[in-house]
Amino acid sequence: MTTDESDYELLITGATVVDGTGGPRYEAAVGVTRRWGGASATLVVLRDDAAIEAAIGRSRRRLDARGKVVAPGFIDLHSHSGLVLLANPVHEAKVAQGVTTEVVGVDGLSYAPIRLAAHMRELVEMNAGLDGHPGIEFDWASVEQYLERFDAGAGVNVAFLVGNSALRLATTGWDAVEPREADMAEMRSMLREAMEEGAFGLSTGLDYPPGSYASTAELANLASEAAKLHGIYHTHVRYTLGDRFLDPFREAIAIGRRGSSPAHITHFYHRATFPGPPEEMLQLVDDARAEGLDVTFDAYPYEWASTRLLITIPTWVQEGGPAKTKERLADRQVRAQVRDDLQARGVLYAGAGGIADIRLGAFENPANRHCEGRTLGQICADDGSDLVDRLCDLLLEEDLHLNQVTPGPHTDGIRRFYQHPWAMVGTDSTFVGWKPSPRTYGSYPRILGQFVRDEAVLTLEGAVAKMTSMPADRLGLKHRGRIVDGAIADLVIFDPATVRSNATYDEPRRAPDGIAHVLVDGQFTVEDGKPTGATPGRGLRRGRD
């Protein structure tokens, strides 16, 4: 640690600075220092040639970044790494893209606060196809205890949201019931305590029980509580609602309105199978903002969605938790009703080919390993089985742990959504199965390579702002997301001429090109294009970071 305020641990010279604000790029040197013995490494921007020359002589290390861009580290507004990051803190898939901070506890599925060990086991079992079930010690209950686990070291910083499923588990359990007044008071109290311990707001995933059983009024009540402590309402909407096109997003905006809360719609995108154009969806955001509401959204830049396979099963089958779910999946009468429900649902979660086109992953039973990375239709064609029967059998044989990859947004829709002034970036990254969605490994390089350089859908400055300062502002992070004097030294250095994603549907785990260096708190997590294994990240606390 340096003690002289003039000394720099690192001086980055020759780079073009894209500072995250959306303003024009400029030439400057960027110094990383721990002035006055500060706990965090911070930035100093040097534009004057004489000042840069003097700083070179007072720097421990100089990094020549000619031909490259230096930008704030990328902030991912949606990641399913809340458990797997504890098992693999290096987090290569994300640091290799330039990610330095990510939001966990998304989709209503947070693993704190969880008071009962039985509830933790059940939540992990139900959501293993989305969040994984790593062999870690589940030795926490509160948000503070959970965040302390990340303080021990991680490849990225972690910002945490409280999932409403955790609040329901502590009060109404796995049942699809209306909470009593005492239950609501307890949920508000738990949310308030969690935010005082550092959470950034409330998340919902209104396709995932038990949080999906919450009414609009219940969610507005909780969003109001979060807003009192300057938290946000971060929502995976109720896609089965009403017209299954605009009505799910109307509800999200209504919850923000009724709760006097900022509303952030996560993984907002348009499917080719929707009954109307993307402009109608974006107009909802524009109309809400014209009304004076604080509504924003994030989107991921790939055509492939991914989640737990259980999402294909109607939520009434999942009431009561994993044991009851398994009982119903084994019941032939229940399967008949599931078959009818799926036919009525159509292509909502699958695509034009229905559930036959769902690609399955995360198999652990040796007898089923041949199914890894294949579609349900291919598996059934091999043995002549019925799609719904095979779906239910595989879930039972794999203890509900399976993942799926399905068609998601279409490319033209991705372009249109990112051009919206209030669009930000969230990868919705999942880390289970041999063939996850390519968004897990390629999101940021794809935006910088394809949508900025090759297609000019976005300016470089505008794209970086959507990855940095805008997410920082949405979360209330005051010292990240911009390259300014005194900001915490989370940085990414990339080559704008070569940066690109190599991740595809068939080969989703390929690392990107062009991301040269990544720093978290002034330490290299990627150096010369390779992850270093460093884990300088930690749990962030709302209002204290």
Question: What number is the mean pLDDT?
Answer: 96
**Biggest β-sheet description:** 7 strands, mixed
Uncertain regions spanning at least 5 consecutive residues: none
Would you report the number of β strands?
23
In spatial order, strands of the major sheet run 3-2-7-20-21-22-23
| Gyration radius, in Å | 23 Å
User: Gap between N and C termini, in Å?
Assistant: 21 Å
Structure classification: alpha/beta
With helices defined by DSSP (H or I, 4 residues minimum), what is the helix count?
Answer: 18
Helix content: 25-40%
Which descriptor suits the 3D outline?
globular
Summarize the structure in words.
With 545 residues, the chain is of the alpha/beta class. It is built from 18 helices and 23 strands. The strands form five sheets. Strands 3-2-7-20-21-22-23 form a seven-stranded mixed sheet, with no helix packed on it. α7 runs parallel beside α8 (216-228) and α16 (439-454) runs antiparallel to α17.
